[in-house]
Each structure stands twice: as C-alpha cells, then as structure tokens.
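Title: Comparing notes on inverse folding

I've been comparing how different people in this forum approach sequence design from structure. To keep things fair, I'm posting one structure and asking everyone to reply with a full sequence. Here's the target:
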C-alpha cells in the first residue's frame, strides 16, 4: 500500500499497531467507512451542496473515503492557510500568538518529525495551521478528545520512532493532568520536547464561554514554576521571556538528548479574533 494514497488515521492506527498487515487494515477501514455511509452518516452531512456550493462526490469515491488532494481541490484552502501562517513569521508580540508558536515549531522541526497534540484551544490552532507534509506527523486527540494525551502520546511516538524528533504540544491544564509521565521518559532516556501553551487557564472553555455568554466563569488557575518542575525530574526547563527566544529554544531543545519542557506564554486574545474572522469567511473551495 502506497503511503501517500492513504488517509492519515489509517496510517496512524497502522503505525501504532506495528507488524499488522497494512493491506488487511486498509480493507477493514474501507469496510468501516462503507458501513458508516450506509448508516446514513457522511463526512459532509446533508447540506453538502449548500456548504461547498456543489454536489457531493460520486458515492463510489465516498465509499473509499476522502482523498484530500484528488484533483487539487484542497489547494486553495491550503494556500489560504499558508498565506495566513506567513503573516506571523516575524511577529514579536508577547505573550506569543498561537500562529507564531506554530510557525516557529514548524520551522524548527523536520518534516518527518512527530508532534502529538493535546486538547484545548492550542489544538484548534494546531489542527488549522500546523502544516504537515507526511502522514502521522501531527497526531491529535479527536473523537472523545481526552486531555492529557500529549505527554504520554509523545513518549509512545518516541518509542515507535526513536530516530525522529518528537514534541508534545499541550495546554497548561492538559500538561498537568499527566505530567508525572516525565518520570517515564527520563527513566527510558527519551528525548522528548514538551511545549506548554501557558495561559493560566482552560483556554478553550474560556473561548466557548465568551462566544456563548459573553463572559467567563471559573476558567482561570495558577501554574507551578514549570522550569523548576522540569528540573525536579532531572529534565531541562525553559521559560520563554521574549518571542525572539522561541525559535532558538525549540532548536536547542529538539537537539537535546533529554526531556525538555518549554513554558510558552500564549496570547489567546487571538481566539475571538479567529471566531470573528471565520464568521466572515467564504469557503475558498
Ligand atoms: C479529560 C478531559 N477533561 C475535560 C475536557 C474538556 N476540556 C476540553 S479543552 C479543556 C481546557 C483545556 O485547557 P488547556 O489544557 O490549558 O488548553 P488551552 O485550551 O488553554 O489551550 C477542557 C477542560 C476534556 N476534553 N478532557
Ligand atoms: Mg490553558
């Protein structure tokens, strides 16, 4: 099975369950999709024409799942996202904008390196903007969307791909849910970089509360000193005090042969700006 012809989630499962026959896995996945569509569900939902301004794919194509690059239909969307990303290349605002964190991380990491993303506002930004050139290089906790996956997930990814650099991208709350696993990574001498988007809050919940009610409630908290916390495990800790330090810190941490924890203050003022922008946007495809 050619890697490039396969959907991300199929390969994700295939690479996690190593040794499994990938052809069988593809067939099983196609069967799951066939049943899904037959049961009346669909990737696009009933208003597909209204949403995309055109008819759905022929059913035989849908049965085999979406193929994002077929006919270059997604190219305008991809180009729009790249243009958006490029705007923040030199943005030195502090706290750091989500787009700039993603820009610098993407720049510092190799295209075959792996990012495992947690759940929260940072995930929405990563899912929109972290540019992937290879399947399974950005693994995101969707579905039940459990917080706390990024740190143990990054350790698992490093076990599976010891030759690739691996980073966990996580909110401060999600990090604190499973940060004890730093001990595991240290015990196995694993080089993993943990990037904490620090907003001292449940950023996504705050975002939703603002959108729904125009005010927030019980979403703020205090954090420990993440540098000292890292050091207490024997890991390296960095606090980004100015935006210009971000890219060099990513590079340094990715080259380190140990666990590095990067405390990265984030400007979630961008969240509601994104909501407003998306409300005005017309789908480019
Ligand atoms: C285990 C679990 N508990 C609660 C939630 C609901 N939830 C989704 S995002 C979120 C806040 C995440 O905060 P943080 O990790 O700091 O990320 P941020 O949104 O600030 O980027 C919560 C509570 C969840 N998805 N998983
Ligand atoms: Mg947070």
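Reply #1:
Here's my take.
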């Amino acid at each position: 099975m050619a890697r490039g012809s396969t959907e991300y989630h199929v390969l994700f499962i295939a690479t996690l369950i190593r040794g499994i026959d990938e052809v069988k896995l593809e067939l099983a996945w196609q069967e799951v999709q066939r049943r899904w569509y037959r049961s009346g569900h669909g990737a696009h939902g009933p208003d597909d024409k209204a949403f995309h301004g055109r008819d759905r794919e022929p059913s035989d194509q849908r049965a085999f799942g979406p193929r994002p690059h077929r006919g270059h239909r997604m190219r305008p969307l991809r180009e729009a996202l790249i243009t958006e990303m490029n705007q923040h290349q030199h943005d030195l605002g502090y706290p750091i904008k989500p787009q700039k964190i993603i820009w610098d991380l993407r720049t510092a990491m190799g295209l075959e390196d792996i990012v495992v993303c947690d759940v929260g506002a940072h995930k929405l930004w990563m899912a929109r903007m972290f540019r992937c050139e290879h399947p399974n290089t950005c693994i995101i906790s969707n579905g039940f969307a459990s917080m706390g996956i990024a740190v143990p997930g990054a350790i698992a990814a490093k076990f599976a791909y010891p030759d690739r650099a691996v980073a966990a991208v996580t909110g401060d709350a999600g990090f604190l849910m499973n940060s004890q696993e730093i001990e595991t990574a240290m015990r196995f001498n694993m080089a993993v970089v943990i990037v904490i988007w620090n907003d001292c809050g449940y950023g996504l919940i705050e975002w939703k509360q603002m959108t729904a009610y125009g005010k927030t409630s019980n979403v703020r908290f205090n954090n420990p000193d993440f540098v000292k916390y890292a050091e207490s495990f024997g890991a390296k800790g960095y606090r980004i005090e100015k935006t210009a330090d971000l890219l060099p810190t990513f590079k340094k941490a990715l080259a380190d042969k140990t666990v590095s924890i990067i405390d990265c203050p984030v400007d979630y003022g961008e969240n509601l700006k994104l909501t407003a922008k998306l409300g005005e946007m017309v789908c480019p495809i």
